[in-house]
Every structure is written in C-alpha cells, then in structure tokens.
Records
---
Amino acid sequence: MGSCRLYTCFAGKSRMTEAGPLREVKEMFNKYAEGGTHMTAEQLRLFLVEVQGHVGTSMAEAQQIMEQVLQRRHHLSKFARRSLTLDDFQHYLFSTDLNPPILNQVLQDMRAPLSHYFIFTGHNSYLTGNQLSSDCSDVPIIKALKRGVRAIELDLWPNSTKDNVNVLHGRTLTPPVEVIKCLRSIKENAFSASPYPVIITLEDHLTPDLQAKVAQMITQTFGEMLFYPESECLKEFPSPEELKYRIIISTKPPKEYLETKST
C-alpha cells in the first residue's frame, strides 16, 4: 500500500515461474518496447519515469541499469548488446538490489478508497515455519509488520478447556499462541514501518461466548485505534489517508456455525 512501483505490485507473487514471465510483466514490456522483442535504454528510461516514479532518470542512468542486468545475466561487457529481452526485464523487476522495494516513499495519491490499492498481505502470519508442525508465535507477526505488511491473518480456535482462545493452524500439530499476545504485539508494532492502516483478518472457529471474549480483547487492546464504519453497509471504503494509524478488523461467521444453520 502506498506505492505504484511495479515491484511492489508483484511482491505477493515473489517468485520467477517456470512457465515464463508473469502476464503483467509481459504487458508492461510490450507497452514500453512498443511491441518489439527488445527494450532499448530510452524505452527503459520511460518505464522508470512513468511507472517506477523515478522522474529525473537520465539516459546514462538507464544505460547503467541495463549494463548491470546484462552483465549479471549474460556476462556481457558494457560495449556489447544494449537492450533487454523480456526475461532480462523480469529479472530486473524482481532483483532486490537493482530494483529495491520502496520503504517510506509514497508516490501515489492516497486519497482514493482503500479498495483501489494493492495491499501487502500476510497469510498464516503467526507461523514460524511449515503449516503442519511449526510453532505459532507473535514473532513472525512482529517481523511482518516491521517489513511493512499491512494485513495480518489470525486463525482463532478454542483452547483445550474451551474457556479461552488460541491462535493456531487448525487440525494440525502446530503448538498454539494466545490470541491476546498476538493482539498486543500488533498494537505495539502496527505502524513501525508505515502509518497506513493494518487489517487483522480473523479466521473464526469460535463459539458465540468466545467470540464475545475476543471482541472484548480487541476493544480493550486497540481502543481508539479501531476503525468503526459509520453504517453496516459502506458504499465505498475510506481512503488510506483517512485510515492512517487505524486498525481494521475483517471477519465472517465460522464455517462450523454456517453449516449448523443450514442443516
């Protein structure tokens, strides 16, 4: 959230696929290479200015980037070919040293509805390792927030005595962590990397009394940081600018409850 940079748009897909370059990369390459098979330094410069937001990029800087990519991928000297193939272009986009992610720079207008933006999202944010047997902890959540992740997922399950709530990957061997510990760590670290809102997605497997208990924990933990919509049915979301330093809760009734209602 907060960046129009192409690298950031692909952050959630952070892998080179064996099937070849991503569709979005192909589209961008075709646009700036004007349908050709190679991208020139001038075409790369235009891409850097218009998409990446590097307004003052010179031809010399674009040529230098091109030379670095070609030297790294093909061991070509600066006197050899000076154009990028589609594969070279994708390599550049996903190179964290040649095209690092934006940290605190905001290049977009952040006053559009929240749904208009890419959001850096975590999945099973509490797991320290694999999804079957690794520990559940607040440590991966803290690390994610410090990296700028804006959406944290918590899977909520009753504890063994059914009187409290744990976070764990259900029906696996993952040792749990108490939900209150996760909530407190989110509060302490939510805005360490960005002032824009943090969304907590709750995968709910709780009974109504435990749902009420979690609701109380959330209210007491976050207080005025919580975002409350003005009505049950919003016509559109507020903007990231309006939601700075706010916590948004996203949840739905548990599948267990829905299955019971339908029988």
Note: Strands lie at 151-158, 165-167, 177-178, 198-204, 247-251.
---
Amino acid sequence: MQALLLEPRAWDWSFPSGPRLCPGVTNRGEAHLELNAFRRKHDCALVISGDSLEVCLKYYEYEFMELACQCPAVVCCRCAPTQKAQIVRLLQERTGRLTCAVGDGGNDVSMIQESDCGVGVEGKEGKQASLAADFSITQFRHLGRLLMVHGRNSYKRSAALSQFVIHRSLCISTMQAVFSSVFYFASVPLYQGFLIIGYSTVYTMFPVFSLVLDKDVESEVAMLYPELYKDLLKGRPLSYKTFLIWVLISIYQGSTIMYGALLLFESEFVHIVAISFTSLILTELLMVALTIQTWHWLMTVAELLSLACYIASLVFLHEFIDVYFIATLSFLWKVSVITLVSCLPLYVLKYLRRRFSPPSYSKLTS
C-alpha cells in the first residue's frame, strides 16, 4: 500500500523535493488549483489537514485519490474518525489492494474496522483500538516484525498447507478414478472402512499440519531484507499457477501408484490394495519432506510417528490387507519401485529449479 495513514505530532521527511504541505482550501476553486500544482511535483509527500481533505474528496475524489496513490507517503492530520474510515474505503475501491490500518486510540476504531487488517497499539489512550483490531501490539516498533516475520511466514505456511491438503485428497481421488476406469467403471471402492479414514487422519495428518512450523529464512534475515516481502505482493506462493502445478502432481502420482500396483500385482485383489495403499502413504510422507524448507524436530517426529502408526496398524487391518503378503520380499520391492517412480522425478525437478532458477530467499541462506 502506497499511503500511510496516521496522526503526526511532528515529521521529518527526507524526500528529494521535500514534503508538500497542502494549505487550507475552503472551496472547489482552491482545491482545483492546489491539485494541479501538486500534479507537477515529483517525489513529494502530501500533507493535508482534515478540513482540506473534506473539500477535496467532495469535489475531486477521483483526482485526489489518483495523486495520493502516486505519492511515496500521504499524511492526513487532524482527521475525524469517519474521514479515516473513508480514506481506507477509498483506497480499497481505487487500488483493489488490501489495506492495513494502525491506531492507538478510540478515534481510530472506525478506521481499523474498515480495513482488511487492523492493528491496535496499546498506549496512553487506552485499549479501545487494540480491542477492535485483528492484532494487538504494545509498541509501534513491533509492527515491522509483525508484518515482515510473522505475516510473511503465516502467508507462506497457509499457502503450502492449503495446497498440500488439496494434493492429498486429489491424489487418492485420482487412484479411485483410474481403478474404476480399468474395471469398466464398476462402482467398487478401492479402499474401505478404516483405510480411507486412517489415510486422512492418523497416517498423514501430523506431517501435513507440521508444515505450519516451516520457514524459508530466519527472523533476523527477514527483518534485515524487507524486499523479501515483495514476493507476497505478487501472489506467487498461492496462485492459479501453483494450484495447477499441484493438480498435475496429484494426477501424476495417483496414476503412477495405481497403474504400478495393477501392473505388478500377482493374482489376488487384496494385493492391489496392499501395494497401492502402502505406496500412497510413503509418497505422502516423502512429499511433505520435499515441501519443507527448514526442518524442525517436531516435523521429524510427525514423519516417524505417522509411519510407525501405519506399520503398527497393519496387524489389525487383516480384513483389508494380507498380513503374510506384506512380509514378503516381493511386496517390499514392488512398493519401493512404485514410490520411487512417483517421487524421484519431483525431487529431480526441485533440484534443477533451485540450481538454475533459485528463489530470492535462497541467495540469503546459501
């Protein structure tokens, strides 16, 4: 967002042309002259009072917002609470961007509630702003860490988690579709009972949700290089492109596991279930490891715990899986081959991408 909304006590701008103070305007003619004069300025901060702002927004709302969005900074001083909320609303409508409002008093509540993200500062003016805000901080200097570290990590983690949940569900759906198409579209489920429930909960839940602990750079690096935040403004971690990539990965892996199980099974249908389901669990665990940028000890525990739960539950799944078959060497090499074919190409592509087209943060961690 290119405009800064606050109520200054004193300011010291260091722009090349210096700050531009818009004198008090009382009618339409004066507002027209001042806006035309400001249009000829470059690299100037706009400082305007509440009375002048009301006149400009009344007669030249579009022109004023166009000029304000082109400024390095805009300071609106001595504004009424309704004016603060109006400015936030106009910024949302004119720019289509998300807005963040920061306030420390009761007169900032309307502005905070109007914005997409409100931050309240607990200060001498009470806690009205912090109670009405989405986030509350005790000092204004904490705002940088809230945005650059916690905000950035939260966005990237949410993007990775949501797309991986889609991948997990689409992968098993692709396997069911392939299985039904091979057997003349018969309405026979591939997995039944506890298998389908355990896949979504016990076997893959902990590693998937451990992605909320992932981070690409350390907090100190994120604070030192705020340029890393620009990637979020472009929407690259969560976009149509990344969604389609995960869809293609899901279709590829689901098809590979199912066709591989159908190709390598020997005689009984229960062997297809054993081979494909075990390969599916191992593929999901390896895909979580592929997605992680920085390992946390809880991630390792989640991976090992999920694998241990699946191995331990095989004793009770004799109704769906042949326990004697999974103890044979034939089962082990078939599962290993299918899992390798489904995951190895993705690991190779990730290595090549980081080698020839590394992301911006990798240059700071190498």
Note: The chain has 16 helices and six strands.
